[in-house]
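Q: I have 459 residues here and want to know how they pack in 3D. Can you give me a structure?
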Amino acid sequence: MTDRLLFKDEVLDVLSASANVAQFVSFGPDLRQRFSRVRNRPPNWSFATFQEAAGELLKAAPDGTINVRSFLPSRPEGSEFLYGLRNLDQIVAHVRRLSDCGLYTILNETIDVNDGGVSGVLAGSVLEFAPGETPRCVEGVAVASLPKSVGLRLLTLVYGFKPLLKYAPAKRVEFSIHPKRRGYKTEHTVVWQVEDIEFRPSRAKVNWPNSFSRFLGDKVYGLLVGRLLGLRVPKTLVICRALAPFSFGAEMNTDVKWIRTCPREPRPGLFSTVRGWTDPFALLAREDPEGQQIASILVQDEVPAVYSGAFLATRDGPAIVEGVRGRGDELMLGRAGPEDIPREVKALVEEELSKMSIQLGSIRAEWVFDGSQVWLVQLQQEAALSSGHTIVPGKPPRFIRFGVSEGIDRLREIVKSLDGKSDGVMLVGKIGMTSHLADILRRARIPSFITDESIQQIN
């Protein structure tokens, strides 16, 4: 005997009473209309013929295309699915053909997964999502996974509206979020399925890079996570390739802006950071002409810097906190070494950023101290490899000597040449363990350490 819940169109009919669903019309194998949700028509409006119903749905679809899905009540999954049809005669022919095979059909508006929105699943107190995917992305794609409250606030900041996902913890909800209003109720949130669950995920696995952090840019995602978990972040305007501009953070009492390139994944020191205004579009055209590496440009208020530096979790001890008086860009690029910073400043940095380590695991962060408060200007998850003067542990047969005055671009060339080889790298010079030079070696997992001794080579 067939379970009524296996009628997928009836499930949509029930769901639409409490949520925004994609516009649809459904038919039985006899081509009699079963349910409908077409904009500007009452629920379950009865059309004269199935041809009229298909035509009206096609007119009401924002992109002028519809999908045809088919099912059997005894086998709701696995039947034919046709995507993005715009010719009415072809749509009618497909419905007739599927009906002749004894299948039920559902026609629904096409909702483009590549419109800049995300799809995902809310299960209990965990929210997971990805761009350019259906809700099934949670089964395989590297999704963003966040506590529900944090995830909803993050999506609200990015898209400028709050997703309509008010569901009890005992529910599992498949949804999609769209910059352009969609569905029967013309809302930004579309719900595809709601079901009761017995097992609830205990906590989100907050990890990045993921598909959404690559979509926004790694720096953007890290700053959003840091801001939503309680750190101070200066006002940041995000000019993103894939979305309308958005901003977050606290306005600073300064006229100076920093223009920061934001690659999809961390590329330490590869792309420009500019103090003061510069044409961001010219910058993008010059540094990423193919548009494949840099996801966005950040225009960030300058924090008046009394001290600046970086924080790095280590593999077997307390975190490394390094800094300099004033701005920290030369420290990050390896053009200046760390200085002694006041004990109270170091303690404040450790207090603020150690809380992030508890919530996020091993991290690397860049900070600015304005004389009274610590501000976050970059946050990344990074494996805890370093300790003391050792960047990456290991005992290679040979260490290649690299003088830090040769510069970050030359180090990048050496790292590329070592791909697949077992040699290590000895950085010679007074630089920080948190510098981009050290970060390049950590990310490449090349055995390495820092020394300021003037020796030619270690074998």
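Q: Anything worth noting?
A: Residues 314-320+332-365+381-459 form one domain. The radius of gyration is 27 Å.
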